[in-house]
Q: What sequence folds into this?
């Protein structure tokens, strides 16, 4: 058993709002509790059973009581913090018909968040150049049922302003909180927090328009409902997350707590799946057998025929995951016969929603006794770190510089993985057309293979592209990237070449943000410098 008595009396001001420090104290309290017993794991069954483990909900009473007491004295500060973050996010997601959304008030009501189960672990970190750092990771099963929950929104339309109320919130989800501790920051030594859902939470709520009788509301209630649902069930699902920077709290002239929401975009890949299929014999033999293995993995499909004696054969496929909840891997095998019908050995399907954070590897097999063959399938999921690069207009923000420790790319001996390329903007584009500036586009090649072609940006010397891609490579160090700039001309005219830049990828290239590349051109009518600004990030993954 673990018994703690904690009495704190604090009067602090952070960002002009008293009590925001309570967030740090909660994490400090959790960390102290769990670090006292670093092997401590509390798991309980999910409502209705399931793979949540076994145990008693009573085992969480001490922690929920502590959270309830903490929440009771910090409720207004938490609501103010959420109001600030929420207002920024809903305005970014609102359609053009809505001019502005203002969060008027947030009331959680009497329903308290309840922890159904929690696991923790401590990992070492070497992301800072000095001092001692530790990262404490909490995986939490969190539930909320608050029939009197409400937050009100003022929705400004071109001709009218409506008031919408989001009410009766219920919630169940798996939350991961990573707390980065460092002896380089003031007490309680928390550098920053990272908060993300490890799968899509179950959410329920109502949206009601107030004082909108006999007014055409343009379906605003449904629009608001969709925005809130997207925030809770998609944007904050990994790799989307909240970053909470606490490094300046308590320092002289410190700016207090900074909260940044980095939502998951629809085309962001949360991970990589590596599928390896081993074909081998049940018993030694001298007979030759032709086995065709077919792997469907995401958008990748591979068919390979192997000639099998007594030695084993390996067939492998890797693919970037679009969505853990929707992607799957299918593997089938059969005897390939030239003049006769093929003989099916069997097939398996791996649902990737079973994997992700809770089960990163699944092993399955099937065999055919008559043909003396066995098929072993190993499917492994690799969760990708967040890129943490955002562009708004011409400004590029590197959140890794803000949240040191949560995002770092360490040099490893793994040379395979995922390359992220972001083409930001160009400057000094020459005027190649008779009456207008160039309509510039960028084509990116990795080892001569095209990996990205941006849209053309019309009639400007300083085009902003803001386009990115990511792709798998088996060898990062030693490969090269080429960025080619062209002026898009209308057919039948050919596009005019502007210039290009090539970079050799080394161990120093694992994270380059908003790098300026000088474009080399063969054109004699270009007198000034042409620069292209790009980001390159390599995330190592042991591919199959």
A:
């Amino acid at each position: 058993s673990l018994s703690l008595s904690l009495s704190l009396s604090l009067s602090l001001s952070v960002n002009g709002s008293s009590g925001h420090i309570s967030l740090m104290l909660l994490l400090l309290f959790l960390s102290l509790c769990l670090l006292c017993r670093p092997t401590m794991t509390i798991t309980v069954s999910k409502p209705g059973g399931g793979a949540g483990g076994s145990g008693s909900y009573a085992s969480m009473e001490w922690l929920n009581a502590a959270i309830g007491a903490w929440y009771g004295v910090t409720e207004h500060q938490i609501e103010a913090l959420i109001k600030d973050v929420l207002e920024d996010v809903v305005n970014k997601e609102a359609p053009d018909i809505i001019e502005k959304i203002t969060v008027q008030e947030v009331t959680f009501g009497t329903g308290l968040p309840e922890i159904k189960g929690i696991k923790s672990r401590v990992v070492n970190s070497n992301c800072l150049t000095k001092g001692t750092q530790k990262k404490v990771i909490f995986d939490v099963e969190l539930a909320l049922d608050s029939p009197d929950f409400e937050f009100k929104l003022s929705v400004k339309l071109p001709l009218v302003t409506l008031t919408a109320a989001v009410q009766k919130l219920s919630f169940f989800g798996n939350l991961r909180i990573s707390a980065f501790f460092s002896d380089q920051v003031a007490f309680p030594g928390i550098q920053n927090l990272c908060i993300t859902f490890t799968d899509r939470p179950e959410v329920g709520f109502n949206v009601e328009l107030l004082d909108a009788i006999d007014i055409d509301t343009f379906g605003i209630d449904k629009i608001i409902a969709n925005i809130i649902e997207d925030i809770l069930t998609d944007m904050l699902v990994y790799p989307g997350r909240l970053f909470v920077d606490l490094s300046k709290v308590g320092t002289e002239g410190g700016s207090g707590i900074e909260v940044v929401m980095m939502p998951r975009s629809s085309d962001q890949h949360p991970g990589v799946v590596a599928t390896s299929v081993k074909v081998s014999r049940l018993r030694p033999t001298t007979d030759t057998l032709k086995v065709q293995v077919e792997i469907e993995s995401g958008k990748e499909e591979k068919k390979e025929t192997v000639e099998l004696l007594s030695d084993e054969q390996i067939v492998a496929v890797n693919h970037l995951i679009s969505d853990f909840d929707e992607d799957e891997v299918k593997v089938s095998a059969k005897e390939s016969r030239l003049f006769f019908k093929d003989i099916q050995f069997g097939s398996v399907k791996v649902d990737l929603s079973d994997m992700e954070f809770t089960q990163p590897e699944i092993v399955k097999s099937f065999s055919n006794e008559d043909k003396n063959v066995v098929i072993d399938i190993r499917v492994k999921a690799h969760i990708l770190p967040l890129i943490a690069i955002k562009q708004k207009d011409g400004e590029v923000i590197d959140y890794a510089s803000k949240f040191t420790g949560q995002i770092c790319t360490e040099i490893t001996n793994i040379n395979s993985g995922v390359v992220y390329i972001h083409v930001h903007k160009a400057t000094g584009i020459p005027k190649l057309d008779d009456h207008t500036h160039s309509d510039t586009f960028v084509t990116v090649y990795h080892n001569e293979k095209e990996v990205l072609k941006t849209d053309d940006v019309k009639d400007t010397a300083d085009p902003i592209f803001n386009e990115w891609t990511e792709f798998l490579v088996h060898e990062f160090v030693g490969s090269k990237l080429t960025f080619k700039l062209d002026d898009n001309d209308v057919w039948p005219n050919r596009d005019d070449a502007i210039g290009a830049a090539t970079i050799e990828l080394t161990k120093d290239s694992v994270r380059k943000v908003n790098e300026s590349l000088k474009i080399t051109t063969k054109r004699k009518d270009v007198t000034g410098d042409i620069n292209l600004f790009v980001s390159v990030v390599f995330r190592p993954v042991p591919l199959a």
